[in-house]
């Protein structure tokens, strides 16, 4: 058996999230269907770096699987793409050591959140950019983001619907840029809890609207009380941008951002 | 009764074209459903500048309708948008003289066709940009476009499936721009026949691929034989960009392009 690492992009609009489900259409379900066909098997498992919610998109989602087939490395993407639906695309595949693990070996992840504050909605962006026709205070949001940096217990800034017990994560960097009415928020951290980026966004937006003071964030974190944080921002604006497996690469990326 | 001119945008992906249909979802069907609700009537007709096919998008589609309601001009868009689905959006509404006609008064139209020639498909653009991973010759395509300019009988460059008898149209301008792998083709003409822009595109692409010589276009036009022209390019890349009702405005726009 050899282990293959595939880098996958997907438009999350028409998926009920990443994770395999008995009935609903999922990203993992489609990949494993393709793997089943290629391997002529009844079931062929895959392991991703993590899950995304319904409507959330993937730009570079790492997924690994094992195979007894000796397909040349560069033909794996062609084989998978010939079967996958057109809202998914394997960007590349490579053979990796069998000890490699798409989830456990991750040293960092980047999520991107896109928002548009134009008065008029853009029908072409409705599934890809959260439309919030409000005036937002960039400096208040940047200040709010500063309070999130570092290592904290993020219980109050993630969904209680999870089996994960250790809720300590490290946020290395939050980068906010604006071009006209289009805003891009980049979150780089050691890892993120269930719905954490969407709740971070909802809370940063509260600061941008003046509904909370940026410094309130310290108290929200310490409280470990989900009800004190902001609402969960819509999934359509969220993208899993990339997963880092090498600390050097992660540090260099953060430095250059 | 007063006549209202609405300017509409729509993502054509999930519509079976513009025109009202008995069962399938159409842009006109959704507008007239909203008008029915607003007027508390069983049927309320509307007239557009023209139709678009399944999958074709609208950036600024003019639509007129008559109403006995005295709703302030700037509230019409709000009222319609509160009912319309989120893949449609009324950008503006204004009262116009009752002699105004969205179709008959048009003096010109602009269509935009978007194409991407990157090797890898982009899952986020699949419904919005035609993906053709080939090398295209820009100068051959520009030369081909030159042969289309002016007044011609476009029988060979439109679909035979139409009741329209007069197939003479004037193309004022074809503008081709490229930014990296993304191509934009703008067609400005007096009007366009059924599937004409998609067949013009299919024929220009043939010239870009070297499958025909640009000068062959003269012969294709003269032949009045649809089978000599190129294939019908996919609807997903096509946008009705704008409709002109004033000759001055049209001429100024062409000059500045």
From TrEMBL, chains A, B:
Annotated protein name in UniProt: tRNA pseudouridine synthase A
Catalytic activity: uridine(38/39/40) in tRNA = pseudouridine(38/39/40) in tRNA
Pfam families given in the database record: PseudoU_synth_1 (PF01416)
EC nos: 5.4.99.12
Record lineage: Bacteria, Bacillati, Bacillota, Bacilli, Bacillales
Domain Pseudouridine synthase I TruA alpha/beta residue range list: 6-105, 144-246
Function: Formation of pseudouridine at positions 38, 39 and 40 in the anticodon stem and loop of transfer RNAs.
GO biological processes: tRNA pseudouridine synthesis
Classification via CDD domains: PseudoU_synth_EcTruA (cd02570)
UniProt family annotation: Belongs to the tRNA pseudouridine synthase TruA family.
Positions of the catalytic residues: 53 (nucleophile)
Any one GO molecular function term: RNA binding
Alphabetical UniProt keywords: Isomerase, tRNA processing
Subunit structure: Homodimer.
Binding positions (substrate): 111
InterPro entries attached to this UniProt entry: PsdUridine_synth_cat_dom_sf, PsdUridine_synth_TruA, PsdUridine_synth_TruA_a/b_dom, PsdUridine_synth_TruA_C, TruA/RsuA/RluB/E/F_N
